[in-house]
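Teaching soon. Invent one.


***
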Amino acid sequence: MHLRLEAGTHGSVSGIAAALVFLGFLATVAWRWTEVRAVGDGRELLVRNLLLTYHIPREAIGGFRSGAPWRLKHRSFIMTQVVVDVVLKDGRTVALLATLSYVHSLTSSAFPERHQKDLVQLEEWLRPDQRATPTGMA
Protein backbone atom coordinates (compact mmCIF):
# COMPACT_ATOMS: atom_id res chain seq x y z
CA MET A 1 0.00 0.00 0.00
CA HIS A 2 1.36 3.40 -1.00
CA LEU A 3 0.61 6.58 0.87
CA ARG A 4 0.86 9.86 -0.95
CA LEU A 5 0.58 13.21 0.83
CA GLU A 6 0.62 16.50 -1.04
CA ALA A 7 0.51 20.01 0.25
CA GLY A 8 -2.73 21.70 -0.70
CA THR A 9 -2.13 24.93 -2.56
CA HIS A 10 -5.69 26.00 -3.31
CA GLY A 11 -6.35 27.33 0.21
CA SER A 12 -3.08 29.21 0.43
CA VAL A 13 -3.53 30.79 -3.02
CA SER A 14 -7.02 32.04 -2.17
CA GLY A 15 -5.72 33.32 1.18
CA ILE A 16 -2.95 35.25 -0.54
CA ALA A 17 -5.42 36.64 -3.09
CA ALA A 18 -7.75 37.80 -0.30
CA ALA A 19 -4.84 39.43 1.54
CA LEU A 20 -3.76 41.25 -1.63
CA VAL A 21 -7.29 42.51 -2.26
CA PHE A 22 -7.49 43.76 1.34
CA LEU A 23 -4.10 45.49 1.07
CA GLY A 24 -5.23 47.11 -2.19
CA PHE A 25 -8.36 48.38 -0.44
CA LEU A 26 -6.30 49.83 2.44
CA ALA A 27 -3.91 51.50 -0.02
CA THR A 28 -6.85 53.03 -1.90
CA VAL A 29 -8.40 54.41 1.31
CA ALA A 30 -5.03 55.80 2.45
CA TRP A 31 -4.48 57.48 -0.93
CA ARG A 32 -7.99 58.91 -0.99
CA TRP A 33 -7.56 60.25 2.57
CA THR A 34 -4.57 62.28 1.35
CA GLU A 35 -6.83 63.78 -1.36
CA VAL A 36 -9.60 64.98 1.02
CA ARG A 37 -10.06 68.73 0.55
CA ALA A 38 -12.43 71.62 -0.03
CA VAL A 39 -11.31 74.21 -2.58
CA GLY A 40 -13.33 77.20 -3.68
CA ASP A 41 -12.76 79.36 -6.72
CA GLY A 42 -14.94 82.07 -8.29
CA ARG A 43 -17.57 79.65 -9.61
CA GLU A 44 -17.72 76.51 -7.46
CA LEU A 45 -16.70 74.69 -4.33
CA LEU A 46 -14.83 71.45 -5.02
CA VAL A 47 -15.46 69.01 -2.18
CA ARG A 48 -13.35 65.85 -2.25
CA ASN A 49 -14.46 63.56 0.57
CA LEU A 50 -13.30 60.03 1.29
CA LEU A 51 -15.71 58.32 -1.10
CA LEU A 52 -17.28 61.01 -3.29
CA THR A 53 -16.26 64.22 -5.03
CA TYR A 54 -18.72 67.11 -5.43
CA HIS A 55 -18.55 70.17 -7.68
CA ILE A 56 -21.01 72.57 -6.03
CA PRO A 57 -21.82 75.77 -7.94
CA ARG A 58 -21.59 78.88 -5.77
CA GLU A 59 -25.19 79.79 -6.68
CA ALA A 60 -26.44 76.49 -5.19
CA ILE A 61 -24.90 77.14 -1.75
CA GLY A 62 -27.19 78.68 0.85
CA GLY A 63 -24.60 78.77 3.63
CA PHE A 64 -22.49 76.72 6.01
CA ARG A 65 -23.11 75.35 9.49
CA SER A 66 -21.50 73.21 12.12
CA GLY A 67 -22.46 69.64 11.43
CA ALA A 68 -23.93 67.39 14.09
CA PRO A 69 -21.09 66.14 16.30
CA TRP A 70 -20.32 62.45 16.56
CA ARG A 71 -19.42 61.46 20.09
CA LEU A 72 -17.52 58.36 21.09
CA LYS A 73 -17.69 57.61 24.80
CA HIS A 74 -15.47 55.20 26.66
CA ARG A 75 -15.93 55.27 30.42
CA SER A 76 -15.24 58.91 31.37
CA PHE A 77 -13.36 59.76 28.16
CA ILE A 78 -15.25 61.54 25.38
CA MET A 79 -13.95 62.12 21.87
CA THR A 80 -16.05 64.39 19.69
CA GLN A 81 -15.69 64.70 15.91
CA VAL A 82 -17.28 67.60 14.09
CA VAL A 83 -17.29 68.84 10.49
CA VAL A 84 -18.67 71.86 8.64
CA ASP A 85 -21.69 71.16 6.44
CA VAL A 86 -22.46 72.91 3.16
CA VAL A 87 -26.16 73.78 3.23
CA LEU A 88 -27.55 73.81 -0.30
CA LYS A 89 -30.44 76.07 -1.26
CA ASP A 90 -32.62 73.01 -1.91
CA GLY A 91 -32.16 71.92 1.73
CA ARG A 92 -29.64 69.12 1.20
CA THR A 93 -26.31 69.15 3.03
CA VAL A 94 -22.83 67.95 2.14
CA ALA A 95 -20.30 67.32 4.90
CA LEU A 96 -16.84 68.78 4.34
CA LEU A 97 -14.55 66.03 5.59
CA ALA A 98 -11.60 68.40 5.10
CA THR A 99 -12.89 70.37 8.12
CA LEU A 100 -12.92 67.33 10.44
CA SER A 101 -11.88 68.37 13.94
CA TYR A 102 -11.57 66.42 17.17
CA VAL A 103 -12.14 67.36 20.80
CA HIS A 104 -10.44 65.04 23.27
CA SER A 105 -11.75 65.74 26.71
CA LEU A 106 -13.26 64.22 29.78
CA THR A 107 -16.22 66.62 29.81
CA SER A 108 -15.75 69.37 27.18
CA SER A 109 -18.14 69.76 24.29
CA ALA A 110 -16.56 72.98 22.93
CA PHE A 111 -15.63 72.95 19.28
CA PRO A 112 -11.98 73.36 18.37
CA GLU A 113 -10.67 76.74 17.26
CA ARG A 114 -9.76 75.32 13.83
CA HIS A 115 -13.38 74.36 13.24
CA GLN A 116 -14.54 77.91 13.92
CA LYS A 117 -11.84 79.33 11.61
CA ASP A 118 -12.90 76.98 8.80
CA LEU A 119 -16.52 78.08 9.21
CA VAL A 120 -15.57 81.78 9.06
CA GLN A 121 -13.30 81.22 6.03
CA LEU A 122 -16.08 79.45 4.14
CA GLU A 123 -18.62 82.16 4.94
CA GLU A 124 -16.16 84.82 3.74
CA TRP A 125 -15.62 82.91 0.49
CA LEU A 126 -19.38 82.81 -0.10
CA ARG A 127 -19.81 86.59 0.23
CA PRO A 128 -20.40 88.31 -3.14
CA ASP A 129 -17.41 90.66 -2.75
CA GLN A 130 -15.04 87.67 -2.39
CA ARG A 131 -15.90 85.91 -5.66
CA ALA A 132 -12.40 86.04 -7.13
CA THR A 133 -10.57 84.97 -3.95
CA PRO A 134 -9.66 81.29 -4.00
CA THR A 135 -9.80 79.36 -0.77
CA GLY A 136 -8.67 75.88 0.17
CA MET A 137 -8.67 73.43 3.04
CA ALA A 138 -6.72 70.25 3.10
